[in-house]
Amino acid sequence: QVQLVESGGGLVQAGGSLRLSCTASGRIFSIHHMGWYRQTPGKQRELVAAITSGGSTNYADSVKGRFTISRDNAESTVYLQMNSLKPEDTAVYYCNADVTFISDKDGGGWYLDRNLEVWGQGTLVTVSS
Fold this sequence. Notes:
Blueprint lengths: L1 E6 L2 E4 L4 E9 L1 E12 L6 E6 L5 E3 L7 E6 L4 E6 L8 E14 L5 E10 L3 E6 L1
Parallel strand pairs: 2-11
Antiparallel strand pairs: 1-3, 3-8, 4-5, 4-9, 5-6, 7-8, 9-10, 9-11
């Protein structure tokens, strides 16, 4: 019932910048925290940055001071501004959200349901040295 679609990945030289976007769609009632994770082959997915519905943020130590997460609640969108990119930032970046959404009851009516782990399809970021 809820989809996340990322965009903005690509190839950039070390020291450059990219901005990732992730928009949620579907029968959304409210979005709680949103975040960005990344994964490289053979490694576990790791948290890059997260933001609450109130705007509180936290970052992985490796990106502090270089990446900024923000969100537009009216547009159900979260952004990741990545500056001073390094080759070690190369990864597939995934958007994640904790969402309350509207589901239909059998026989009519609706109710609120919650998915704590909605994931996007991922967008590749490649940083060349």
